[in-house]
Each structure stands twice: as structure tokens, then as C-alpha cells.
């Protein structure tokens, strides 16, 4: 039987908070309970927000919680060629295309469509791509790229779903790993998702499935806010011929107003709790772990 492989994959774009602690602890303890390996991956594709000092801080915080991981740590910023190879495969299949609208232009197009009827949004609440870049000729696309125009590479969702067919994934329990549900993937709800930009040669969706395959991840443990993103991940796995991990999407840690904790809302960082004298056991109690 293959040894299970788990991974925790934070982004060094801020300090870890209680939500990260819950996810990391569940992940690590599921790996330990199943006799599996535990890997750490640094998701640092966003060069404008990710900083070395945040990476140093998160390593310290995870060690303080009592986690141990295999070395070397994988950093996404060191593997852009792997994501480029995946994009090249999708391009060869005729499943990606460049779009050239700015964010402001996309907002204007969405507003125009909303004036006629409510425009569809993806599960994250973002309006679906409203442009017509798929209708551009190959010659015009190449000419605009050669001219240095900013562009975004998008997945042709209709063609991709037609190519992949019906898709599912296995959702397992945290306490009893033999309990599971089969979930039907519905990637079409996301529209023509972004897979790369001119300035950032991969997206979260693409990088995570490539990394999970290259690291041999058999189990993906993450918050329930990412459960619907698994629709896109299953589609990319099918298109690229990648292995399918089992998934566990756990509850979130919420603030006093019922919102999930976030770096963007400056949720109290673990290092602040450490400075206040809290212990790892205190953190476990606060996030509801025995």
C-alpha cells in the first residue's frame, strides 16, 4: 500500500493566524494518524505580496505549534517552468486563449450586461469573464502579444468540460478516514478561469494541481472555503492526466461577526498570541481541537 502524503501550503504574504493553525494541525494530525508523510509547500507566486520575512515567520510559527515536515521545502517561485509546461500542454490541446481586456474594461463590460440582466458570478462572487477574446483570430492574438500588450491566459471552460466529461472527487472525514462521499465536480460554474498572466506565469489553480502531482500528494486538507475550487482542480487534473488526491475540507475559524479569519482583515497573528504568553495548547483549545 502506498504511504499517504499530506501537504500544508501557506502563502508568505502575511503572518499566520488561528485559521492557519487549525488547518495545519488537522493536516499534520491526519498524516500522523494514517502513518503518512507531511510536506510543507510555500505558495509564493505573487511576487508583489510575498516576502522572505513572512516565510521566516511562518516557519517559526509552525515549529512552535509542534509541526515537523520533510526537507527540502518546495517553493513555487522556483518551479515556474513546470507550470509553463502544463500551460503548453493545454495550449496544444486548444484549451487556452489570451484575453486583453484590463480589469477596468472587464468591470465596464459586466456593468453593461448587468444593466440588461444580472450577470453570472463564480462561486467566489467574481463576475464571469464577459469578453469576446475567444473570437480573435490566432494571427491577431499573436500580433497583440508580440506588440507587448498585457494579457491573461484563460481556460476555455466549455471546450475543457466537453473534453474531460463527468468528473468527481472523494471527500473524506477527518476522524474516520474510511468515511467518504463522492462529490460531483461542476467546473462550468467558474467560467473561463485565469490560468496565468503576462506578469505572473501561473495561477493558484494551475500551480496547486501541478505541485500536488509532483509532490505525490495523496491527501489534500484545506478549509471549506476552497471546496468549490476543487471543481476547477479536478478539471485540470483530468486534462493534464494528473493523479487525483483525496480531499478533506474542514470548518473555518470565524471572527465575532461570523466572517472567516483573513490576513487582509488583519486577524490576530499567531506570533502576537505567542507574545501574549499563549501556548500551543491554548491555540488548540481556541480553535476547538481536543
Commentary on this structure:
The structure is a single chain. The protein has helices at 18-33, 52-64, 80-92, 103-114, 138-146, 157-164, 204-214, 230-240, 270-275, 280-286, and strands at 5-8, 37-42, 74-75, 96-99, 152-155, 168-172, 180-184, 194-197, 219-223, 246-250. The chain has 290 residues and is α/β, with parallel strands linked by helices. The strands form three sheets. Strands 3-2-1-9-10 form a five-stranded parallel beta sheet, with helices on one face. It has a three-stranded antiparallel beta sheet with strand order 4-5-8. The chain is globular and about 60 Å long. It starts with a strand and ends with a helix. The model has no long low-confidence stretch (mean pLDDT 94).
Task: Chart the SSEs and their pairings.
Layout: E1 5-8, H1 18-33, E2 37-42, H2 52-64, E3 74-75, H3 80-92, E4 96-99, H4 103-114, H5 138-146, E5 152-155, H6 157-164, E6 168-172, E7 180-184, E8 194-197, H7 204-214, E9 219-223, H8 230-240, E10 246-250, H9 270-275, H10 280-286
Parallel strand pairs: 1-2, 1-9, 2-3, 9-10
Antiparallel strand pairs: 4-5, 5-8, 6-7
Helix pairs in contact: 7-8
